[in-house]
Amino acid sequence: MTAGDICRVFAIPFREKKRLTTVLDKLVDDGFIYQDNGGRYGTAEALGLIKGKISGNERGFAFLVPEDKANHPDDYFLPRKNLHGALHGDVVLAQRAYGRSDDEAEVVQIIERGYSEIVGTFTKDRYAGYLTPDEKRFSTEIFIPLHRCYHIKNGVKAVARITEYPHGKAPGGEIIEVLGDEEDFFAEELSIIRSYTLREEFPKGIEEAAEKQQQRGITPADYANRRDFRDKLIVTIDGEDTRDIDDAISIERVGEDYLLGVHIADVSHYVKYRSPLDKEALTRGTSVYFPDRVLPMLPRALSNGICSLNEGEDRLTLSCMMRVNKKGVVVDSEIVEGIIRSTHKMTYTEVTKMLDGDEETLAKYADVQDMVATFAELTHILQTMRQKRGSVSLDVKEAKIMLVDDEIVIPDYKRQFSHEIIEAFMVLANETVASYMQSIEAPFVYRIHEKPNEEKAQAFRDFAQGLGLKAKFNASDVRPYDYQNLLKSAEALPAYSVLNRVMLRSMQKARYSPENAGHFGLASDCYCHFTSPIRRYPDLCIHRIIKEVINGKYAEACEVYGGFVEEAAERSSDRERNAAEAEREVDALYAAMYMSERIGEEFPAVVSGVSAYGLFAELPNTIEGFIPIESIPGSFECIPERFLLKGSKESYSIGESLRIKVVDVDFYRRRAVFTILEKVSK
């Protein structure tokens, strides 16, 4: 309807039409309704419009990723001429356009711009400055007026704030931060960090608030109504360089049962709901870890200070006490507010040495020697229980990239049993807490992992069968034990690591949700993240709810957090994805730099991926490189569903062993380039 039509329907006097139009135009600006060329207003659905996000391409065209996947499951192609000023990341309304293909669309309205700041390389001439974005899908430069950039050096990496999107012209902006020279490795790393809107520093007021809490420490009133665990043997087990310690463990034998304590830092005692500290934590969502730095969710006065469960210091906790029988079943549990004093800050390496019988380490930790042995005993029981339940033990290799004395170090991958101890105990606590909160129907943030969709499960089954494995599960209703059994049958194969990786790709991504949907990978009916409130916002959020409940304030918890858990779940899932992508990109940069110093060296490798353009191969330290198809003798056909590059002379499939040579590093794509020396027979 036109504005006049709406006036007639609602009997609005003509003199009020201008006020009505103001309201309608605001709705148009916010993307709730749209006005067509004939002046008619309507919802996007009524006018046949599709709301979605632009996914650009460096060649100028783009794709529309619809918001409503139920009615628009596929993306739409947007030729350059149909973009009408829309750029990568923008939220738009588009209509179907019947051009050269059936899936073509045309942008009719830009609802929200995707970028307010962007990272790139700055250049200038006599007339103006320009920022060429690192994000190649953002297919235009940012125009910087000369009077705003005359003092900035040519060729530096910089961050620009976009100040305008003029019709038919390049976006205008200003340089707000210079990161360093274009060839500077650390400037490149910082460019990636900034492109994901991540920052090291906290606003001054946030730092001051954290320092105030640190100085306050633990007051006499804080000890009241808490379970005192300070006379118990309690240890933390972390990496050598860990400073933000948010979990500690204890164990005792009670008859034939085990009393396992998982003690988690009570961050919510210091970070109050809706306080500036809390709002900053929600904005960040998670701590982000890079080889040379950590971007914490909370200021270090909290994360490394008063909240960290440091050895020999009194610390407030939320403790989950579980009585576990010899079958690995929790027969009784309680969640209490506690206070602990960690007996030892142990490392994974030290615990492994103790279990291996290293006399020096056993002597150093003589007082907890028996307890560590009991940790291992219970871990084996829990692992057996999980295997019977069908838990999928994904052993996906992840490179441990470190910067040691300005040198990049990437040791060969090795998983220690001590990691499995902490993993088993944290998983058990997470399940126990989630099950209790679900049983009382309290508002909550669950960690869910839905089962794989049929298409991806089918592709994985075909791949496994191509390796000669017996994979006969029902792809439309795959169960955790189907995947577990398949992994077990492949443990002795060279392709085991790649099978893990392909299996992971077939799965849905785990996420946070206010509704429980179970956890496929863990074969768990109910799961949450409870054990890391220093570095994950969902853990901090549910701590507050749990404390209200155990203190008899169930109704208050429902009233205060009932609506908030959905926002917390959605934001936390988004920030987690953002952090993971940033970590992957920075790791790829470090790996590329590491391999640039090894050009000409030879390594064993396993084919980890195939494409029409070549092969991907993984080294023992988990670094992945690319083998261009033109460097492999013969002609080839890529058969993606079989993960196979079929050749006229030799074929290559995922999981096969090779001997490769490093010939180059592609810094643009941040990956090493290999050539095949020989295919290693199995």
Question: How would you describe the overall organization of this protein?
Answer:
The structure is a single chain. By secondary structure, the protein is an alpha+beta fold. 31% of the residues lie in helices and 28% in strands. The strands form ten sheets. A five-stranded antiparallel β-sheet has the order 5-4-3-6-7, with no helix packed on it. Helix 3 runs antiparallel to helix 17. It is globular and about 80 Å long.
Which characteristics define this entry?
682 residues, alpha+beta, five-stranded antiparallel sheet, globular
Number of strands: 33
User: Strands across the major sheet, in which order?
Assistant: 5-4-3-6-7
- Which bin fits the share of residues in helices? 25-40%
Tally of helical runs: 17
Content of β-strand: 25-35%
Amino-to-carboxy terminus distance = 71 Å
Structural class computed from helices and strand pairing:
alpha+beta
Sum this structure up briefly.
This protein has 682 residues and is an alpha+beta fold. It has 17 helices and 33 strands.
Helix and strand topology:
Elements: H1 3-9, H2 17-29, E1 33-35, E2 41-43, E3 49-56, E4 62-66, E5 76-78, E6 91-96, E7 105-112, E8 117-124, E9 128-133, E10 142-145, E11 156-164, E12 172-181, H3 185-195, H4 204-216, H5 220-223, E13 227-228, E14 235-238, E15 247-254, E16 257-265, H6 276-284, E17 288-290, E18 293-295, H7 300-306, E19 314-324, E20 330-341, E21 344-347, H8 348-355, H9 359-364, H10 369-389, E22 402-404, E23 407-409, H11 417-439, E24 446-448, H12 454-466, H13 480-489, H14 496-506, E25 511-513, H15 537-550, H16 554-561, H17 564-596, E26 602-611, E27 614-618, E28 624-628, E29 636-639, E30 644-647, E31 652-653, E32 657-666, E33 671-680
Parallel strand pairs: 13-20, 14-21, 28-33
Antiparallel strand pairs: 1-2, 3-4, 3-6, 4-5, 6-7, 8-9, 8-11, 9-10, 11-12, 15-16, 16-19, 17-18, 19-20, 22-23, 24-25, 26-27, 26-32, 27-28, 29-30, 30-31, 32-33
